[in-house]
Amino acid sequence: MAHKGKGSVLPFLFNQKLSFDTHGEQEAGTDKISKRELIEPSLLQDLYGEKVLRPPHESAAADFIEQALVVAETELLEQMLLMNKISPEKVDHDTYTTLQAKEDRGFRVEIAKHRGYRNIDIATVIKKLVDENALGIDVQFAVQMGCGLEAASYAEALLALRTGCPADKIMFDSPAKTRADIRFALEHNIQINADNFFELDRIAEERRKLEDAGYLSGSVIGLRINPLVGEGKIKALSVSDESSKFGIPLTAETKKRVFEYFHKLPWLAALHCHVGSQGCTLSQHAQGAKRLYELCEEINGEVGSRRIRRMDIGGGLPVNFDSEEISPTFDVYARTLREEVPSLFRGDLTVITEYGRSVSAKAAWAACSVEYIKTVSTDHEIAVIQAGADLFLRTCYAPSNFSLRVTGHHRQSGKELQPHADGIVGGNEVSRRMKRYDVAGPLCFGGDKITVNRPMPQLLVGDFVVVHDVGANTLSMFSRHCSRQAPPVYGYCRSQEAEGVEVALIKEMEPVEDVLRFWS
Questions:
Q1: pTM score > 0.70 for this model?
Q2: How far is residue 494's CA from residue 27's CA, in Å, rounded to a whole number?
Q3: Half-sphere exposure of residue 389, counting CA atoms within 13 Å on the CB side?
Q4: Which of 22, 89, 222, 237 is the most buried (most CB within 10 A)?
Q5: Cis, peptide link before residue 328, omega less than 30° from 0
Q6: CB proximity list for 415: less than 8 A, separation 6 or greater
């Protein structure tokens, strides 16, 4: 498979090892990886033959990547997904599980098998696998593990079906569903969460049309409620204030209308809320779940039966982007839920979650080689790389809310660059004096910068810039500005049978013809 276009797409990768047994537990303190090891191009070629894209020229830097690369740590992601496949009958009363990826970056994942989950019938929805990261390999794996998928568009719902996800485990959420969207979901028995009363009326009309045609839809229909717990630190990601575009605000007046609809529509059988994501506290999430549960009980009392069969409490667990530490953990959130909404754990309700960013953000990193260095002043430089606002859209457009960790790595060894007061000798040392860097992308506007004035060890042309924690809302938000090609995606893990690392090409770099076809 020949590489077409400028630059090489062969990455340097860091080894990853997980020790994991059949019960989903890992012993602490074992098999620690003390250093990053470079994966040689020859090893990749031996492992994957023509699947590995070879460098088009022979310079030292050409053995590595010159285009943006996203690496999905698939084995680690596999372990992380286990947190959303908790089988209550298999959880001992006082046990929990800790999964830890043993490597020098301290990548730690604590997954809740806490007693707090013991009595919940969890029908898990992994939101990130569709609208935050729709890579086929990840979606397929989630489905194989018994997870469900949330879709926010017709295309995502179709993708979920084609991946083999059972229709009753697909949940269609969108504040702007068309009649065609609704009819498609009803015809395929996909759960629909109505965003408003107008949409409920549309669903009722489309159901009647199908019934008149002789088809009774098996779709579970829910109603999205805005529990009004207030904004988090990031307004753009907060969806539970009075001005939110999502759901029905939970007031005394709207509650009366909710009751009326549950009386009028006997097939209305679920509730949904989502208070926001990054920037929202655990207390806000728990308060949203509490208010939704209280409404559930009131509705059941109004209609005289346990009408509500499913309650979707949303996702949005925040991610720590400042370090490799996983904080907060799902174990902590489970305890918060138990403290705030103990009745949620009695076991007579299917509770659905929509964890997205918190599942996948730390499962991937991106790397680019430095194309050019421009001098601003003695201690301030601009490092130009092949990815910017096309791949790191939120970081470039709203840096105060979406800052990412960025590290420099040596162009030959791949080792992380370290600060050194005495500077460098000949540009070959890992220890280098500190400078301030704007890491700039290739797009044609001035705000196309991943970092601005950030202290980093000196970068040279051919060195690598690694952007961490990009497993969510990165590739899924790729921009067509300047008609850039979407980067290739590789997955890797430590080989269980031999020394070294197994690497697979998950997704090829987007062919330039596909970019041109977009505009035709």
A1: yes
A2: 17
A3: 15
A4: 222
A5: yes
A6: 36, 409, 430
